[in-house]
Amino acid sequence: ESLAMSKPVSPIDSxxxxxxxxxxxxxxxxxxxxxxxxEFSASERKAIFARGDEKLRKQISDYNRAAAxxxxxxxxxxxxxxxxxxSSVRVAVASNSNSPQDALxxxxxxxxxxxxxxxxxxxxxxxxxxxxxxxxxxxxxxxVAAANPGTKGExxxxxxxxxxxxxxxxxxxxxxVPKDVLRELASDSATVVRKAVASNPNAxxxxxxxxGTDPDSSIRMAVALNPSPPEAALGKLAGDDDxxxxxxxxxxxxxxxxxxxxxxxxxxxxxxxxxxxxxxTLRRFRDRRLExxxx
Length: 295
Known about the structure:
Elements (H helix, E strand, L loop, with lengths): L14 H7 L3 H4 L13 H10 L2 H16 L5 H7 L5 H9 L5 H7 L5 H8 L6 H6 L6 H9 L5 H7 L5 H9 L5 H7 L5 H9 L5 H7 L5 H9 L5 H7 L5 H9 L13 H7 L5 H14 L5
């Protein structure tokens, strides 16, 4: 049964229901459309499904999936559909952006991994339910939960210690991950994790400065692309051995130009230090002579 019930359904004496159940497959096509389905309660639809023929079953299944996917479906119906016997219906509820939290809390513990993954990716899933997924045996599910924007910082600290690199990477990419966790992950053995830290706008200047000297050029590139890198790190990256990294570092919106009072970026790039003696000398020359001269 594709819509097997979790509880036995009591007999329904509705004359309309008896009429529907007496329809034969040959005459079933005479029904004009699917609108009749919504006139019955969820328990009545389950009874019709359990006792009806193949076409009745398909029509009810189609209605349940459509209702489960519709963001305008009432919360109480979505909660009922979260217990539906057909996994595709439960996946639709788990993916619905308007599904109530109590329905998602049920689905995140579903026996079907596809349903659990869909619920784990829904931003409305309760934070405590997402936290519990850190112990789930399925790695991809832990990854999805770690990436969920509804996952709290204390839970992300747990995901950040996961045995699988792609789970730690998902935690490092989450906007809610604490800075101290990012600082620790900046020294992770997995390249994908360090790259995620380098790409996170919330990473500390210390973490980005460390990753700006990473032996992997893709990580240095991620630092150069970060919207909030420290100036000293950009200065070093502007002199990077990889021309692509140099180009991106020079084009970063945070890169100070040679005309800005805050620093001399070309000199910083050449020396690799904002406070190098040569950089300071050239900056003073710029400020005292070049910017005060009359063209």
